[in-house]
Design goal:
Elements (H helix, E strand, L loop, with lengths): L2 E5 L1 H19 L3 H6 L1 E8 L4 E3 L1 H11 L7 E12 L3 E12 L11 E10 L2 E10 L2 E2 L4 E2 L5
Length: 146
């Protein structure tokens, strides 16, 4: 996994620590912890939906809970962090999949952007965007392979 940082190194390292907390909370499906890492007015643009506000975000995770099982991991590739003292964003390729699955598995890679703002001295997720490329001729998702 490569990480590239542009801007304030200390802020970028703090954001990278937050993303580790974020990923760990997802792997344990600790929805309360996920929500604690978000701003109250967090927004999400996902492959299949969009929402606004921490309550809507929490409800989405509650709906996703049955699809997440033990032994999952958040995989990230080509992480790039752009950071200033109070605002940062991280972009990468990511997916959530079982730990024991080999690299050539079924879950597709997505393009992910997480925007962070330092609020009351703590980095919070203020926006998340998840997408997949689409072939305009076929109108179907294009699988990303690494």
């Amino acid at each position: 996994m490569t990480v590239e940082i542009t801007g304030d190194e200390q802020s970028a390292q703090e954001v990278l620590f937050k993303i580790k907390q974020w990923d760990h909370a997802i792997c344990r499906m600790n929805i309360e912890e996920i929500i604690q890492l978000c701003a109250k007015d967090v927004t999400l643009f996902d492959v299949g939906s969009q929402l606004e506000g921490v309550m809507a975000y929490q409800e989405m995770w509650e709906r996703y809970r049955p699809y997440f099982h033990d032994n999952i991991r958040v995989y990230r590739r080509e992480i790039k962090v752009y950071a200033q003292p109070n605002l940062a964003f991280l972009r990468c390729y990511s997916k959530v999949d079982k730990i024991e699955i080999e690299q050539d598995n079924q879950v597709p890679w997505c393009r992910t952007t997480l925007c962070f703002e330092k609020l009351d001295g703590k980095w919070k997720v203020v926006h998340q965007h998840i997408s997949m490329p689409v072939d305009f001729h076929t109108q179907k998702a294009v699988m990303l392979h690494f």
